[in-house]
Amino acid sequence: MKLENKKILVTGGAGFIGSNLVEFLLARNGIEVVVYDNLSSGKREFIAPFFKNSNFRFIEADLLNKKKLAEEIKEIDIVFHLAANSDIRYGMRHPEVELKNGTIATSNLLEVMKENNVRKIVFSSTSAVYGDKPKVVPTPENYGPLFPISFYGAGKLACEGLISAYCHNFGFYAWIFRFANIVGKNGTHGVVFDFIKKLRKNPRELVILGNGEQSKPYLYVKECVEGMIYGVEKANDRLNYFNLSCRGATRVKKIAQIVTQEMGLKNVKFKYTGGERGWSGDVSQVRLDPRKMRSLGWESRLSSDQAIRLGVKELINQL
Ligand SMILES: NC(=O)c1ccc[n+]([C@@H]2O[C@H](COP(=O)([O-])OP(=O)(O)OC[C@H]3O[C@@H](n4cnc5c(N)ncnc54)[C@H](O)[C@@H]3O)[C@@H](O)[C@H]2O)c1
User: Fold this and answer.
1) N or C: which end of the chain has fewer CB within 10 A?
2) Tens digits of residue pLDDT in 4-18
3) How far is the CA of 19 from the centre of ligand 1 (A)?
């Protein structure tokens, strides 16, 4: 579906990936963007540069508020649904937060969309839906059975299921992207963010969760946004679903080294909390098969290591 001259609602548009997406969309011709965000983890300063753009509007509201959502959705052509709880560790201790901001929020959105005849949705899913130690590595989109080990992953899988049912029963079109780990400008969470914050507090020692051998693909945020838009514009099935990843993977130990290097620190003592995963629910080894997106004609230019280095530089400047 071509996005030119479309009116797009971005839920979670004041967040890390959302604000990068909005910047990308507004740079294209004739696209109107409405951000719907409750600012629970998003930041007004991330979208402040867009306030002067007449094609941009911000609604500070919660997806749990169906009445407000119904008022705002009427003229929309397509929804990019990025809002979610992104503090996965917090969600492990508070599954109800994951349920409300993930599954219930998504169910609300789909219902309001149906009632107002808005039937195109793009959804930010995750590699976490594949669960722990999948038997096929790198893991392709058709891998199953899917048994996530975090409430975050479980919630995303539930949302994918709901979206599929709305496609089947109510004529929806959907684009589901299972992201790798994303890094770059406006990051507010994740390993790179944590390491920089910790090292700013104590530049002599860095506590690393797990044994540091956890290894995952890291995709640069601008490539994530570009890949998503490419997929939406090129894939025309009723229910389109893709891994959005990059070449290679980066170990947590190596991320720690890159962060200390880029911060100009020497002789930092790395202290490991131990164990194969950072926290209960963390998938320690992730490899996503990127071939489906490649066969559509898109692949990331940066490797995982290159994305980490660039993301580290951008976050050091920002924090
Ligand atoms: N960052 C990653 O590495 C990564 C990886 C895989 C998937 N994702 C997914 O991508 C999406 C964006 O992630 P992000 O990293 O930008 O996180 P983020 O926390 O920066 O963005 C989420 C946004 O949603 C908003 N929000 C949360 N609950 C809401 C609600 N009930 N109503 C309205 N707004 C609400 C927050 O204020 C925030 O601006 C999420 O769905 C996330 O699960 C992210």
Assistant:
1) C
2) 999 999 999 999 999
3) 10
